[in-house]
Structure formats: C-alpha cells, structure tokens
Amino acid sequence: MSNVLMVCGHPNLNESVSNQGIISEFTRLCPQAEVRCLDRLYPDWKFDIAAEQQALRAADVIILEFPLYWYSVPALLKKWYEEVMAHGFALGSTGTALHGKRLLVSVTVGAPGEAYRQDGAMGHTVKEFLLPLLQSARLCGMEVLEPVCSTGMMFVPGVSTAADRERLEGLAREHAQRLCGAVARALGGGRMTVKAVRLYEQGFMTEPFAKGGEEGEDRFDPRVRYRSSLQNYVIDTGSEVILIDTGTPAEYPGMVPTPDSKIYIGSRVEDYVSALRTAGYTPEQVTKVVVTHKHEDHTGELRSFPNAKIYIGKADADALGLEGPNIVRATFSDGPYHNFPRSQVIAEGVRMVEAVGHTLGNSLIIAEDGGLFYMFHGDVTYTDEALYENKLSIVYEDRARARETLDRVRDFVRANPTVYLSTHTPLGIENLEALRVVDLEVPVESQPVGDVAFKTASGKYACAVCGYIYDPDQGDASQGVPPGTAFADLPEGWACPLCHQGKDKFSPA
Ligand SMILES: Cc1cc2nc3c(=O)[nH]c(=O)nc-3n(C[C@H](O)[C@H](O)[C@H](O)COP(=O)(O)O)c2cc1C
C-alpha cells in the first residue's frame, strides 16, 4: 500500500489516548504509509511549507487525523491547512498539485454517537460539522472519501478509569482497522463490489462446537454461546456477478433450537434467491458460482442459476454427484497464490484456493481489490473468535489438513490487509460493512447472543452441520431404517442423509 500520507493535527499527542492509539495501530497495519505528526515535527507550530507540500504531492491518499475540537479541526491543523494549501499550490489557475488525490478524514469525537444526530444534543451529524473541511478539499480538486469517525472517545485524566482507557484503546485499534480498509479500498478504486446475501439471523453456536476440534469439546464451556447467522456473498466485478455459495434450499425446514443444540442457525430472513434479489441481483445475471464446499447450507440453490458455471473442488463435486456441462471441477492449476500452494483463477482479481480439511474438496475464495483482500472462507472457522484464538471447529473430514488450512489462513491475514467474510457469524456482515481488516493481535469482541425461544426435546435429532432433522416416527428409508427407530438405536455406520456426517454431529431437536 504505497503513497498514503497521514497528517495528524492533534496538538498534544503525548496526552492523547485515541489518536495516539489510532496512529500506532495504523502504522502497524499499513507500514508503508508516511505519518506526519504536526505537533512533533513542529513544536513551535512553524511549518516547513515546502516539505509539507512535497509530502502531499507524493501521496495518492491523504488522511487528516485529528480529534474534533469545538466542532472543528484543532487550531494546529487549521493553521497547517491555511499555510500549506497555498494559492498556486492547491488552488488558483496553476495550483493543481492536489487534483485527483483522495482525502480521507479520520476523526475522533468526545460526545457519544447518539448526540450527533439531527434529533440529538448536537443537532447535527459529525459529517455535517466537517463540511468546511470537506468542501475546502473539493475546491482543491480532491476526491473526498467517506470520513472514518469514532464517537464517545473521551478520556478525562483523574476521572476516567483504567478500564475506560482500555476500552478506548480497543476502539482506537478498531478505528485504525476501518481506516486501513477504507484506504485499501480507495487505492483499489472501488472496482469491485461485495455484498452479503442474508439468509438466517439471530442464531447461536456453543464454544465446544466452534473451538473443540483439536483439544476436545469437553475443554470448552457449553454455556458459552456465540452469535450465529447464515449468509453467503456476491462479488460484482463490474463485468461479472459471481456468487460464493448458494445457501440452503428454499424448502429447507430450518432448525429447532433446544437448550442442548450445539448450533442453531437462527430464524430465516429470506430464501436464497429472494435474498440475492434484495442484494440487487437476479439469478440470470450470475455468470459464476464458486462453491466453498459440499454442505447443504452452501449448495442449496445451485439449481437456480441458468447462466452460471459452477466451480467446486473435485472431491466435493463427486460426493454430491454433480454432473453437467456447467459443472467445473476445480483443478487449481494456476499456481500458488501468496502462501497457498494451489489456486485457480475465477475472474480478474478473484481466485479459488485449495483449502482441504473441513471437507475433502474444500476451497476458499480470495478477491483482491487494490490493496484490500476479501476472504470468503466457507467454514474454515465458524466464528471469527476461533480464527483469532486459532481453534478448529468439531466439523472436519481431515483434521490434519484442516489445521494446515487454518495455519495458512492465519499467515495470509497476518501478511495482507484482509476482510474475513464468514458464513455462520454476523461478524461476516459487520466486517464487510465496516471493511474491518483482521488484526490477529487484537481479538474480536464477542457480542452477547439475543434471546432464543427454546423447544423441549421431542425424540428428534438435528444435524449440526446441515440442519437435517432425524424423526424417529419417520425413520430413514434411504438407509433402510424403519419408522419407530429411536435415534440411539440407529446403526453404527448411519450418517446424515444430506451431508453424510456421523451421529456424533447430531443433537436433540
Ligand atoms: C479543546 C477541546 C475541544 C473539544 N471539542 C469537542 C467537541 O466540539 N465535540 C466533541 O464531541 N468533543 C470535543 N472534545 C473532545 C475530543 O474530541 C476528544 O477528547 C478527543 O477526540 C479524544 O482524542 P485524544 O484521546 O486523541 O485526545 C474536545 C476536546 C478538547 C480538548
């Protein structure tokens, strides 16, 4: 990520919590960026105008970093602006030095977010207070990007506590991650659009389910629950509409949550095709579908895209018995991609990467837009917490290779600014909306699970992987199990008729 300049207008960074935190995290995530802290470079407030103008000339993206003071920029930054953005440099008939550059305002604000609404205490949004600054940049021929803003960033020495400081430091890191995402996106020129296709929400999964794959489920607390959901994604490259997975089938009955459920995907938002339309696309527009793996909650509507080629790992295509002129069994013959040894080009900037473990034909997809990487990883982890804590879920077909894949994913996100797009946690949607870049050093903050209406046990058992419900009254004719067979009496080799998981993946429904 080159040609990024941050000018920090905080008048006293030594006393700062938020801006200092943002700068140190931003510098770590975007080491190529040049950061100029005006109070440190110019303790006497006497600027080297030529040096400042030269730094601006060299930049493609210019970040103005500051705390909001009296609804405006601090005096130090105002002085800098007035002196450096001189006639003949930034404006006037020969003052074209900033034309075409992008300006990104990064601001911290003391009062809480609810105060900065038209009906709130301040009567205006933060962006409205930034108007003179944003308009000045436009006057200088700059393209103004959406500001990155954090509210409630007030630390009062002697009044605020150590816990307040820690909370603010966390918010500052998160702010820096959003900023880094916005910069990467700006450098990419916003060529690509990625959207979530939202299918289920307000579910949960237990800690043993999400993290117990290597150490064993009993090492984790079944009372700890993470938020769960189900969403897939669509990539619009400008010339192609590419789906990553196709959700559950429209006729999927959903899951019934019980107090013992290991995973409950939540209540339905929309069926897949409707959700795709809500995201702005018709099935006919889709040119390619890339399947991360064979499970029914990722392949449910493969039938619905008449104009699409379907890319899927061979082992999973074979397991599903997929045949037809539109089925492409991925060969991964386009060489390594970063630290992944085998990959296949799907479209310009979009790669399918072999990532065996969760299933034997498992893949993940990485889309690169400028300096920013979107990782659609299927179920390499179920929660983002598991990515940060480096834990495998209990669902895999080859544990050793699932470990190898998770190691590679962690190495990749460490080395590249990556938005981690999960299928089974709403963090996937939240990461996308904020363009939040993964920082493995800063664990994601778990939000509490909302209220769930549990049902009592019924003798039925639900598959934790695909949601199939075994009903003892029905039995399972496909495997010769007569009606009236209790779940406990199913034969040893019995497996889920939909996704082929064993009995151990079932819990009472
Ligand atoms: C002189 C001064 C003026 C401020 N004016 C505002 C203001 O107009 N609105 C607001 O919400 N916060 C205001 N604040 C709070 C700061 O925005 C907040 O403390 C700052 O963003 C925290 O960043 P820091 O920890 O990097 O200093 C003001 C603070 C100071 C010192």
Entry keywords:
six-stranded parallel beta sheet, Metallo-beta-lactamase, Chain A, 26% helix, 509 residues, binds flavin mononucleotide, 3 domains, Rubrerythrin, domain 2, alpha/beta, 14 helices, elongated, Rossmann fold, eight-stranded mixed beta sheet
Percent range of helical residues:
25-40%
Instruction: Give the overall average pLDDT.
Output: 93
Give the CATH H-level superfamily of the largest domain: Ribonuclease Z/Hydroxyacylglutathione hydrolase-like
Number of domains: 3
Bound molecules: flavin mononucleotide
CATH architecture assignment of the largest domain: 4-Layer Sandwich
CATH class of the largest domain: Alpha Beta
Oligomer: single chain
First and last CA, distance: 50 Å
CATH overall fold name of the largest domain:
Metallo-beta-lactamase, Chain A
Strand content: 15-25%
Q: Treating each run of at least 4 consecutive H or I residues as one helix, how many helices?
A: 14
Shape: elongated
How much is the radius of gyration in Å?
26 Å
**How many strands appear in the DSSP assignment?**
22
Largest sheet: 8 strands, mixed
Based on helices, strands and strand pairing, what is the structural class? alpha/beta
Q: pLDDT under 50 segments (min length 5)?
A: none
